[in-house]
Amino acid sequence: MSNLASKDLTKGPIMRQLMTLAAPIMATSFIQMAYSLTDTAWVGRLGSREVAAIGTISLVMWAAQTFTNLNKIGSEVTVSQAIGAQDSSLAKQYATHNVTMSLVISVVLGTLLFLLAPQIVSIFELEESIASMSINYLHILSTSLPFFFLANTFTGIYNASGHTRVPFYISGVGLIFNMILDPILILKFHWGTQGAAIATWLAQALVFGLFLYRLHKDKLLGGFKLLGTLKQKESWHIFKIGAPVSGFTLLHCFVNIYLMRMASTVGGHIGVMSLGTGSEIEAITWNTSQGVSTALSTFVAQNYAAKCYKRVVKSIQKVLSIGCIFGFFTSLLFIFAGKQIFAIFVPEEEAFRAGGEYLFVLGFSQFFMLIEIIMQGIFYGIGRSVPPAINSVVFNYMRIPLAIFFVSLGMGLDGIWWGITVGTILKGICIFSWFILIRKSIFKIKRYKITM
After folding, report:
1. What kind and span of H or E run contains 230?
2. I need a surface site. Which of 48, 102, 282, 411 has the fewest CB within 10 A?
3. CA–CA separation, 307 and 98 (whole Å)
4. From residue 191, how far is each of 138, 143, 206, 245, 410 by CA, in Å?
5. Quick one: DSSP state of residue 365?
6. What integer is the mean pLDDT of 236-240?
């Protein structure tokens, strides 16, 4: 058995280290997002009603999975800071605490989702046939939450140790397995949306099993216990770091749930399908930039703990420069090729025309969304998760009155999409401005500037 050592990110070429960290995380994030896109692509061959059914549950599962941030971000920050302070014993303690907390939360949450599935689906006011498919889909996926939660916690621990390739390889195997199962269960066995749910369940179980195998083989952090007694001090520290992230993401989900119901009222199942599938496609940008943000968070955490402030500043400048280029390119892609992209997943003409309009409008906000996510990584790395939480909550909830206002002007579904877009633009501008105002007090450096 090998002993996988943690990487020291306080020395060496900054850009090479960032890219070495970011590339696997970005790929892993894309793979996790591809689970839903794969399901949607195959279910899309059945029709827009089936896509609407799984789209609502994708939103519900997203809300449930926000709780994974508690221990994924908790692992990335607490374990990486302990490594940066060269305290291996503390790193092991935090790893064990994060895994134990993750298991408890996932079991409780999965049970609640299973028991309350009919009541949850009723929120969206779907047609009876679509609602029935949604309930069955949620019943299956809710039982897979422990696999998903623990896999994300293991990913956070590997990321904190600087070994981001392991989660990438494991998630890749799970995605390939899911891609093979989807057409077989959905089309060949004629299990429809339930087949998509079963394929995802089996793939997540496989990923969980592979993580257990690698942790046993690698002896990560010198070997640590997977489960242990939760201690108040360590648990509270993890909670303080991860809870704001989970909290503001959950509040974001509540906004989307409201907007989904609003889309159902204004545009029927086509509105639900457009928002659900469009959000999954938009997640290509979100997950890619989230990967960069996570790598930056790990890099910043180690260097900030080691008081290598100039390395932190240089890393921020480099990542922001790359982020601006990528955000601009994504905006152009959504604005000029939205319908063509949407048609790949739902070939029904009425569906891809409506979905293409969603991507067109959201295209104007992609640049600002990417900047916001990068800034989140910086704040997380220095252990200040509250500012991005406040920023996100305020402007995410502003989407609701904005959407209501635009719809009242007779803009229909486009009014909802513009409400989302304007809120995202404001988030990006505000969080960047917030960091600029406090940067000198954080790093205690008198002469430097942040450039993009």
Report:
1. none
2. 411
3. 26
4. 15, 18, 21, 37, 40
5. G
6. 86
